[in-house]
Amino acid sequence: MPAFSISPVSPYPPATGEPFPVGIQWQDDGLDLGDRTIDTVNIRTRLLATRGSGETSNVLTIDAGAFTWRDVFDDDSVAAADLGNGLKVDTSGSATVITVPGDDELGLVASEGDVSMLIMQAGVGAVSVEGQSGVTVRVRSALLAQLAGQYAVASLIHTGTNEWVICGDLAPS
User: Fold this and answer.
1) Could you list the residue range(s) of the whole structural domain that residue 165 is in?
2) Could you tell me whether strands 69-72 and 86-89 are parallel, antiparallel, or unpaired per DSSP bridges?
3) 30-79: per-residue pLDDT in tens?
4) Nearest of 99, 172, 100, 115 to residue 140 by alpha carbon
């Protein structure tokens, strides 16, 4: 998981008038991402760290973003922007299929096993989830990769390369 540390080059606390931060070291699993001159670092899909400029150059802002639902009215595919967010599927009667594309298409790397999203069935039409060719969507035995009915919610969790688990309010097999 990406992390950062603030390490004063001189004694702490810094002397009055000494610029802050003296040094910021950005790392991802122990690998340096840049030095203290870096201005912006995106951490996963939901966090953004930005250093101010000018009079606010001593301010580091961490933005956690907000959860958003994307409305879906027909067969659709998961998009990179859906990760960490959710799909609200609202169909009046026809069955809807949500397709999970490969990791490359979603911009995922093998080490990102902690990416997830929600899927909600807002309408009465059945909602099922399947992986495109080469993508596996696993589900517990005795259940289908289909939401249980209107207002059901399921989590789709990335567990490895082109592999997902769906869990939640699912239909029985």
Assistant:
1) 69-172
2) parallel
3) 666 555 566 555 555 556 667 677 776 666 676 767 789 999 999 999 99
4) 172
